[in-house]
């Protein structure tokens, strides 16, 4: 049952200790085997500064049971610092920290809103890449809004005295 190791003592946690770069996965329901896990319902993936949420996620593991890839489907929402992305599908390569969002993707960084066919974020990097992009930048208004400026006094008709 426990190859080369004694079973843990009762009351001892089975959780790993001393993880350097954990990927934290949570959901309403999980099924899986040695190579992958499928999470459904309120899925949350946290890795360093990246936070990804979706309806369904498949996580893939390597031989040492480390998560190497995460594929999300349905209502994907990702946040990394001030960058946000959302779409219908996402593929996150854990070792490289690259997240690619597709399926009517949208992105926002600061006051810039982008749409396109593919949004790419790199973990911890300020860069945002969008293919076939349309960009809307919300900039401060330089024109006065009607009704907010003081009106100059009307000129007095010529030839009148106060």
What does this structure look like?
This protein is mostly beta strands. It has strands at residues 23-26, 29-32, 36-47, 50-61, 67-80, 83-93, 98-102, 106-109, 112-115, 118-122, 128-131, 134-137. Strands 1, 2, 3, 4, 5, 6, 7, 8, 9, 10, 11 and 12 form a twelve-stranded antiparallel β-sheet that branches. The chain starts with 22 loop residues before the first strand and ends in a 25-residue tail after the last strand. The model has no long low-confidence stretch (mean pLDDT 85).
Characterize the biggest β-sheet.
12 strands, antiparallel
Helix and strand content put the structural class at mainly beta
CA-based gyration radius? 26 Å
Helix content: under 10%
What proportion of the residues form beta strands (DSSP E)? Answer: over 45%
Number of helical regions:
0
Task: Summarize the structure in short.
The chain is mainly β and 162 residues long. The chain contains no helices and twelve strands.
Describe the SSE topology.
Elements: E1 23-26, E2 29-32, E3 36-47, E4 50-61, E5 67-80, E6 83-93, E7 98-102, E8 106-109, E9 112-115, E10 118-122, E11 128-131, E12 134-137
Antiparallel strand pairs: 1-3, 2-3, 3-4, 4-5, 5-6, 6-7, 6-8, 7-10, 8-9, 9-12, 10-11
